[in-house]
Design a protein that fits this description.
With 324 residues, the chain is of the alpha/beta class. It is 41% helix and 17% strand. It folds into two domains: 188 residues, inorganic pyrophosphatase (n-terminal core); 129 residues, Diaminopimelate Epimerase, Chain A, domain 1. The strands form two sheets. It has a six-stranded mixed beta sheet with strand order 6-7-8-9-11-10. Helix 3 packs antiparallel against helix 4. The chain is globular, with a radius of gyration of 20 Å.
């Protein structure tokens, strides 16, 4: 057993009470890795208390119920955090109060969580890493768990369009073969959209501002989102659908969450590296898929300028190289 897998398994064995968290604004990979690990631990160790924690999202209810915890046991429990590189984005109350923390993540490393860490930037998703942990330890898996992992991988690679290699395909092939996954049903869960989201997508497509450098952006008013019957998280869920527009190389959706007095910024790229820019404004993520959250409109304005400049430099570099 590889040392990191052994360390993770030993930590799981050690504690009777385990909480599993992920990042704020969760996506299918965050839920998939979280719920797959929870169910695997419960299946392997029926006597343990295992809880999935964080904000519930109605559109992802197919992953199962998020547990409501009144009082966390910060001293004697194990907290496992999946799909989250930095402390400020962990979706759990008083994260810094936990004494024992284990991290499983595929983003570029930002913060050291202080305990056992399994970080692999070359992995397609956190769900892929959870699969590897299960396969390389005595943790158990069933069809439900395999489905959670599959949906996490499919979503974070945008149906295998990016951020995956032959290893990812081999893992997915094994999941499908061994657990007889119903691919059509799983895809339907991940990609089926209500009419309200399609209407919002139409609004975004017709309102995107695109500059001469290939940078596209839109600031979506929450009142418009509500008028279309969608919710505040809808825009971030559809940003990957704008991946193949010829005139655009970087695109950004900005929405304002009045309840939390916070701007949510989702950024995607088909060339320029954007995670370093996102990090400089308090966010982060992958080279071509990142995000920022802030309560400052000034920060948003400066971020958009930086992204446009990034596109300009990228295109000028491409033109220069092409002329040599």
């Amino acid at each position: 057993m590889n040392s990191v897998y052994k360390a993770i398994y030993n930590e799981i064995k050690k504690y009777k009470k385990i909480y599993i968290a992920r990042h704020i604004g969760p996506d299918p990979d965050a839920f998939g890795s979280q719920m797959a690990l929870k169910e695997s631990i419960k299946l392997t160790f029926p006597s343990k208390e295992v809880y999935s924690v964080g904000t519930s999202v109605s559109r992802f209810k197919y992953f199962g119920r998020i547990d409501k915890i009144d009082n966390f046991d910060y001293e004697n429990s194990l907290l496992i955090v999946t799909d989250t590189p930095d402390k400020k984005r962990v979706d759990i109350e008083n994260f810094l109060s936990f004494k024992n923390v284990l991290k499983i993540d595929h983003h570029p490393k930002v913060d050291d969580f202080g305990g056992v860490e399994y970080v692999d930037e070359d992995a397609s998703s956190a769900s892929e890493l959870v699969y590897k942990v299960i396969e390389n330890t005595k943790l158990k898996m069933n069809t439900e768990i395999a489905g959670f992992i599959y949906m996490g991988i499919v979503s974070d690679t945008n149906r295998f369009l990016y951020n995956c290699n032959f290893k990812t395909f081999s893992y997915v092939s094994e999941l499908i073969k061994k657990y007889k996954l119903d691919i059509e049903d799983l895809y339907r869960k991940v990609y089926a959209k209500p009419l309200s989201e399609m209407r919002l997508m139409g609004h975004i497509a017709s309102s995107l501002r695109v500059d001469k450098y290939g940078f596209a952006s839109i600031e979506i008013d929450e009142e418009i989102i509500e008028s279309l019957g969608a919710d505040i998280s809808s825009a971030s869920n559809m940003i990957n659908d704008f991946n193949n527009i010829n005139e655009i190389i970087v695109w950004t959706f900005v929405s304002f969450d009045r309840k939390n007095n916070q701007y949510r910024v989702n950024i995607r790229s088909r060339g320029p590296v954007i995670n370093e820019i996102a990090a400089s404004f308090g966010g982060g993520g992958h080279k071509f898929a990142s995000g920022v959250r802030t309560d400052s409109k000034e920060v948003i304005d400066k971020l958009l300028v930086s992204l446009s400049n990034c596109c300009k430099e990228y295109k000028e570099g491409a033109n220069k190289n092409g002329s040599n």
